[in-house]
Design goal:
Helix content is about 45%, strand content about 20%. By secondary structure, it is of the alpha/beta class. It has helices spanning about 15-25, 45-55, 70-80, 100-115, 140-145, 155-160, 170-175, 190-200, 225-235, 235-255, 265-275, 280-290, 295-305; strands at about 5-10, 30-40, 60-65, 85-90, 95, 120-130, 135-140, 170, 200-215. Strands 1, 2, 3, 4, 5, 6, 7, 8 and 9 form a nine-stranded mixed beta sheet that branches. The mean pLDDT is about 95.
């Protein structure tokens, strides 16, 4: 079926790490290795890793970063080093369902059968939301957040990420496109999704494959739709700045890949990346022309206000 490299980024994750590692051990698919990328942990994280290395020889490798890279760079560097036929991202605080690897791998192989193994393919899935004690919050991450998983083309992904990194699997054709290290990538999963959408496909598996733990230390957590709207209303300035960051990400993506982009892809990226260089009426016209839309009417009203 293919060897799976599981890239697990850690930083002071001792509280939940053992549950995460044990859930991988208990997966039905067994041809995998976990490649742990530690970003300078000072709690008991490394001791937990060492115990699993001793208990399961050859299944867990450890790379210690010389300097703290931050979450996004830590994951992307790990993905570039991965040796497997397929690569998965793994957070340090979730719990994988027993068939996660098997079901996600089946989906990506189904798409490879249609598109070819040389096509970059990213697969992401749903997740069940739970609290720190693994008590249920919601059966669907995307239902809770009101996100449209059908809109995974390049214009939609430039303005809104829908790919949950901890549910993601991608093939080596995606890794082959990771030729330069981005400094303006918003999140590791977002960057990988842009590669898939531009050069191949981003495909959604409509079933939960893990328990997504929602707690105070999450770098990026889930928000229900009402919370999302209220947070945007309270801080429109921050949301405007977030859009600017999206534009910087788009421009860097264009700069890295411009020599292998199709003309239409170049136009899409350029018109998003420099959207604030034109007047408001032209900005709105570009929203309609290229389809730079988020999920749902309320979010897109916000886009009008922020643009």
């Amino acid at each position: 079926m293919g060897h799976v490299s599981i890239v697990l980024a850690t930083y002071n994750g001792a509280s939940f790490l053992e549950e995460q590692l044990q859930s991988i051990i208990e997966n039905t698919y067994k041809d995998w290795t976990v490649e742990i990328c530690d970003d300078g942990s000072t709690d008991g994280t490394l001791e937990i890793v060492a115990s699993y290395q001793e208990k399961y020889p050859g299944k867990f490798t450890l790379h210690k970063n010389e300097n703290n890279l931050g979450v996004t760079a830590n994951f992307l560097e790990g993905a570039k080093r991965a040796k497997g036929d397929y690569i998965m991202f793994c957070d340090q605080d979730d719990v994988w369902l027993p068939n996660k690897i098997e079901r996600t791998l089946a989906k990506i192989k189904e798409r490879e059968k249609q598109l070819g193994k040389a096509t970059p393919i990213v697969v992401f899935t749903d997740a069940k939301l739970v609290n720190g004690a693994l008590e249920p919050i919601h059966d669907s991450f995307f239902g809770y957040n009101g996100l449209n998983t059908n809109k995974t083309d390049l214009p939609h992904l430039l303005i809104e990420n829908k790919v949950i990194g901890c549910t993601t699997m991608f093939n080596r054709a995606v890794q082959d496109k990771m030729t330069s290290f981005p400094v303006n990538a918003r999140y590791h999963d977002w960057w990988i999704a842009l590669i898939g959408a531009t050069f191949g496909e981003v495909s959604y598996l409509d079933e939960p494959t893990l328990l997504y733990r929602q707690h105070g230390n999450n770098v990026v957590g889930a928000k229900n739709f009402i919370s999302y709207v209220w947070s945007r209303v309270k801080d429109m300035k921050a949301q405007g700045e977030s859009l600017i960051e999206n534009e910087r990400q788009a421009w860097e993506f264009y700069e890295i890949y411009k020599d292998i982009l199709m003309e239409e892809q170049q136009r899409v990226l350029q018109n998003f990346a420099n959207i604030h260089s034109v007047n408001w009426f032209e900005r709105v016209a570009r929203l309609f022309q290229y389809g730079f839309w988020k999920s749902g009417k309320v979010r897109n009203i916000g886009v009008f206000l922020m643009i």
